[in-house]
Write a structure and sequence with these properties.
Structural class of chain B: alpha/beta
Strand content of chain A: 5-15%
Order of helices and strands of chain A: HHEHHHEHEHHEHEH
Radius of gyration of chain A: 18 Å
CATH superfamily of the largest domain in chain B: Thiamin diphosphate (ThDP)-binding fold, Pyr/PP domains
Largest sheet of chain A: 5 strands, parallel
Strand content of chain B: 15-25%
Number of domains of chain B: 2
Helix content of chain B: 25-40%
Number of helices of chain B: 12
Number of strands of chain A: 5
Oligomer: heterodimer
Strand order of the largest sheet of chain B: 2-1-3-4-6-5-10
Radius of gyration of chain B: 19 Å
Shape of chain B: globular
CATH class of chain A: Alpha Beta
Number of strands of chain B: 12
Shape of chain A: globular
Chain lengths: 279, 306
């Protein structure tokens, strides 16, 4: 006989399994194409997987151009390989399309664009995604609809002034059906995030802008699930500070900013595969 | 021009329920009537133009026809990447209104001079650039701009401009409008500086010189058919614009000219390449920059001797 605890445990184990597969596909894509941004992809994979696969997360047919309801925007567009791997697992794109990543004649570029099924807005320049969600949510408000809009951003992205313009606009216009995940992996391209511009205390910053803020372990599915639950009933927009590890999941990549740009060679790829327990 | 714009858009919004007006904290009391009539379709977005531009893109994705409205400098220079990536790349029908373009705010200083706006925007794919000559031409073009649902930069004056037309002209986006047919020389202009050309034309007529005059209100896409006719009919062509010598109407026309084998002579009348200081007001700025009616007249007389 199942109790609630067993059901949840089963779901989290399922998410963990998916997450490992997505990590593997992401590393393989970056390895095969010698492209960048692996560390930034690995830090947000658990957030992506929870958003797309958790029962409380996004419904199917998200970002449907013909009838836009629920949306998901990868505002930190440089995590594209991770997003593509998730979109393939969700059957938005085929495996063949996935492995056309970064090759000539493929729409799957190193940053997502709207030609890719499942991608609503093109990203790659930081600081645009939240304003887009604000526009979508404002449209819903005019139409008296209540759709959820999820944005995945990075901590480094909060350097951009437009992020804070959007943050004030959203609370100023009382738009509440927006939830942002901020992937705080503590690093940006060249240095520690908090050393470049003063980002901390990031929780207080978002709170002072009128958002409901949660600070969670961004690799814990139970925690991510909880915020999805709360978001549905929050009277204000929701910001989730996700404490994450850049390069998460691979021992020699974790918290090492070398992997912002570096792609794994054959030996490193095989080691990563072994660590993930992929046959 | 801005009062006409707001009046027109208020009228159009009555039937077209998809129009949403976004303003960048500008136009004191200007939108009161619109707001009263359509309280859910007007939003003051604050002095946060980059966000306003992408919010408009989000609304357009939802099927609305958003219009962003603020001073031309702010709505172009602060929002350039948003215009390119969020509006033009997905080809969304957002209308970006730049009020007080050119030197309409001459006295407010360089921060408010939009004389590089066309240059900055012209290279972006999918974007239309429309710059009406006066309130009457604006009335004719605005419904067409809305109907087309294309990314459009709508470059306007501010208020109290002289009209060049006596009634609303029948003209469309992408089709230049012939104000006068002429002989020997044709002046091509865009935006409200065309009134200076008009005054010059009227004075030149007294000297038995009859210039043609064209309002090239659409800078992109350019009416190349009309240009071909002009190059064939007139040996001398003058191009007048309240814009830098680089990247504006003159550049657009010369790009087309290069692709063809014409042998015309050109006179360029523009604001040069400089930061414009100590002008006080628009009229004085035109005098300083030799684009006042009197300067235009003089330059044309000299030009015809060449």
């Amino acid at each position: 006989m199942y109790n609630k605890f067993d059901v949840m445990k089963k779901e989290y184990n399922f998410l963990k399994k998916i997450s490992k597969q997505v990590r593997y596909e992401t590393i393989k894509l970056v390895h095969l194409t010698k492209t960048a941004h692996l560390g930034s992809s690995l830090s947000c994979i658990d957030i992506l997987v929870a958003s797309y696969f958790s029962k409380k997360g996004l419904k199917n047919n998200v970002n449907n151009f013909k009838n836009i309801k629920e949306t998901f925007i990868l505002s930190k567009g440089h995590a594209a390989p991770a997003l593509y791997a998730v979109l393939q697992k969700k059957k938005y794109i085929s495996k063949k399309v996935l492995y056309s990543y970064s090759k000539p004649n493929s729409f799957l570029e190193e940053h997502p664009n709207i030609k890719v099924n499942g991608v609503l807005v093109s990203s790659g320049s930081l600081g645009h995604g939240l304003s887009y969600a604000a526009g979508l949510s404002l449209g819903d408000k005019i139409n008296k609809k209540k759709n959820r809009h999820i944005v995945l951003m990075s901590d480094g992205e909060c350097n951009e002034g437009s992020v804070w313009e959007a943050a004030m606009f959203i609370t100023g216009k009382k738009l509440k059906n927006i939830m942002i995940f901020i992937d705080c992996n503590k690093w940006q391209a060249t240095e520690k995030t908090d050393k470049i511009l003063k980002i901390e205390p990031i929780k207080n910053k978002w709170e002072s802008f009128g958002w409901k803020v949660y600070e969670i372990n961004g690799h814990n599915f139970k925690s991510i699930d909880k915020v999805f639950n709360k978001f549905n009933n929050n009277p204000m927009p929701t910001a989730v500070i996700c404490r994450t590890i850049k390069g998460k999941g691979i021992s020699f990549m974790e918290d090492d900013n070398l992997w912002h740009y570096r792609s794994p060679d054959q030996k490193e790829f095989m080691k990563a595969k072994e660590e993930l327990g992929i046959e | 021009m801005r009062n006409t714009f707001v009046k027109e858009i208020t009228n159009i919004a009555k039937k077209n329920k998809k129009i949403v007006l976004l303003a960048g904290d500008i136009g004191y009391k200007l939108f009161d009537n619109f707001q009263k009539k359509y309280p859910h379709r007007f939003y003051n977005c604050g002095v946060a133009e980059a966000n306003m531009t992408t919010v408009a893109a989000g609304l357009a994705l939802k099927g609305f026809t958003p219009i962003t409205y603020t001073i031309a400098t702010f709505n172009v220079y602060k929002t350039l990447e948003q215009i390119k990536i969020d509006i033009c790349y997905p080809n969304l029908g957002v209308i970006i209104v730049g009020v007080g373009a050119g030197l309409n705010y001459a006295g407010l200083g360089v921060t408010h001079h939009a004389v590089e706006d066309i240059a900055v925007l012209r290279g972006i794919p999918n974007l239309n650039i429309v710059s009406p000559a006066d309130s009457l031409e604006l009335k004719s073009l605005l419904p067409d701009v809305i109907k087309r649902k294309k990314p459009t930069y709508f470059r306007m004056g501010k208020k109290g401009e002289k009209n060049i037309y006596k009634s609303i002209p029948k003209t469309k986006v992408g089709k230049g409008n012939i104000i006068y047919h002429g002989k020997r020389i044709c002046i091509i202009s865009t935006g409200n500086i065309i009134v200076n050309a008009n005054e010059a034309v009227l004075n030149l007529r007294k000297k038995n010189i009859y210039p043609g005059l064209i309002s090239m209100h659409t800078i992109k896409p350019l009416d190349t058919d009309l240009l071909n006719k002009v190059f064939k009919k007139y040996k001398h062509v003058a191009i007048l614009e309240e814009h830098s010598s680089i990247g504006g109407l003159t550049s657009a026309i010369s790009e087309h000219y290069m692709e063809n084998n014409y042998t015309n002579k050109f006179l360029k009348l523009n604001t040069g390449e400089q930061f414009i200081l100590k002008s006080g007001n628009q009229k004085k700025a035109h005098e300083n920059l030799n684009i006042s009616p009197k300067s235009i007249e003089k330059k044309i007389l000299h030009f015809l001797k060449t």
